[in-house]
DNA sequence: TCCGTATGTCACCGTCTGGTGACAGACATA
DNA sequence: TATGTCTGTCACCAGACGGTGACATACGGA
């Protein structure tokens, strides 16, 4: 059922751990290639060359598999280590650009992000909460002893910037532009970063 | 097939225009209630109390229907008329907040927006292009004779702000928060607006 | 009056979906 | 050697999906 090949080439290695890994990777591949809408039991099983029954046995269904997938893809956020130099605004800019660069290269997380917007789901909410916490840790680390100028609502401002970056990266992947601004080449992103730098410099100047 | 009722209560009014309208409204209702993923021929036809065959006859399929739907929901953007007072930054802030307020109340456009991020589609791209053009017109109108200060990349800055607003509204509808910031009550949005006001005032001051 | 056309209705098709029960073979333990 | 457990395989189900051909009926023009 799983593969059209008859002698079961290598899939049936009778190794649960390896099979689980194969399934998770297959799910990531389907997610990145065809989007979250195509993320079905059958599609994943076919991609992994494994029987869908195993997905139920090992992960308890799609939700469990998704959770395992989301846990993996969210790890790198906590490992971001942008340069921590200059004042508060400059450090934040470094964190934001480092995050945006990474996100631009992670198709799976992009689809996950887009899917979260399309409809609420308990499993996705948990994944997102972990990601948000990791991002907070990164920002606290890079912030160091520097503090935002009094009077500025830093959490709100940072949320706005982060929201803009998420949206622009998603638009870049889906349509390649936004609001008349192209978002394809590296130069396009340089422009975004430059505008962001100007904003943060003025908002966070003391 | 369409309705379980036998005498065809009123649906079969033999009025193409009215039927088309009923179908479009049904599509909007399904979209707003169940999201874009549930937007299928069968679901729409059932919701409209019309036969799915008519969707193929009148709209040529799902894509055509979507286009008709998108054209309708994008109209209000062009009709936005925010207060055009003060300098460039203040006028832009008025346009942005007016847009965000409207968007928050339009569940259909929200789902459309989220769907565009999930995967590229020629039909959705055309709808989005029309919307973007309308938004540009609004901004040009409210801008009046005021100009942004030299040195500031106004298109990029405005795109960033618009991107942030889109993302925050979408997050508000799906998860109710972002980056630790709640996005539910009117007070939450007041906070966003206030932060935006601070940003625009400093970025666009001469 | 008759006839063509437009509108609406229904039955049916093949395909894919998520999900489950039954079974075969490998492996470790007793 | 015999037993039980774990991994993998396959067949099958009911239901939903998109899509189409055939038909009934109302309406408007000749």
Describe, in plain words, how this protein is organized in 3D.
Two copies of one chain form a homodimer. Chain A is mostly helical and about 210 residues long. Chain A is built from ten helices and two strands, in the order H-H-H-H-H-H-H-H-H-E-E-H. Chain A has helices at about 15-35, 40-50, 50-60, 60-75, 75-80, 90-105, 105-120, 120-145, 155-175, 185-205; strands at about 175-180, 180. In chain A, strand 1 (about 175-180) and strand 2 form a beta hairpin. The longest helix of chain A is centred in the middle third of the chain and has 22 residues, at about 120-145. The first copy, chain A, binds a DNA duplex (30 and 30 nucleotides) through helix 3.
Biggest interface, which chains? A-B, 48 and 48 residues
First-last Cα distance of chain A: 66 Å
Quaternary structure: homodimer
Shape of chain A: elongated
Strand order of the largest sheet of chain A: 1-2
C-alpha-based Rg of chain A, rounded = 20 Å
Q: Tell me roughly what share of residues is in helical segments of chain A.
A: 55-70%
Beta-strand percentage of chain A?
under 5%
Mean pLDDT of chain A, nearest integer? 92
């Amino acid at each position: 059922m799983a593969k059209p090949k008859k002698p079961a080439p290598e899939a049936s290695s009778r190794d649960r751990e390896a099979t689980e890994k194969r399934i998770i990777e297959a799910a990531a591949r389907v997610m990145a290639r065809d989007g979250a809408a195509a993320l079905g039991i059958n599609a994943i099983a076919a991609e992994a060359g494994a029987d869908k029954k195993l997905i139920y046995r090992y992960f308890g269904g799609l939700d469990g598999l998704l959770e395992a997938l989301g846990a993996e893809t969210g790890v790198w956020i906590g490992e971001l280590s942008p340069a921590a130099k200059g004042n508060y605004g400059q450090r934040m800019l470094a964190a934001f650009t480092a995050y945006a660069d990474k996100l631009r290269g992670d198709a799976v997380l992009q689809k996950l992000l887009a899917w979260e917007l399309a409809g609420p789901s308990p499993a996705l909410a948990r994944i997102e909460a972990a990601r948000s916490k990791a991002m907070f840790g990164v920002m606290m680390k890079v912030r160091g002893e520097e503090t935002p100028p009094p009077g500025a609502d830093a959490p709100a401002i940072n949320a706005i910037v982060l929201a803009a970056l998420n949206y622009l990266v998603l638009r870049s992947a889906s349509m390649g532009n936004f609001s008349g601004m192209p978002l394809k080449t590296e130069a396009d992103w340089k422009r975004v970063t430059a505008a962001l730098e100007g904003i943060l410099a003025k908002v966070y100047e003391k």
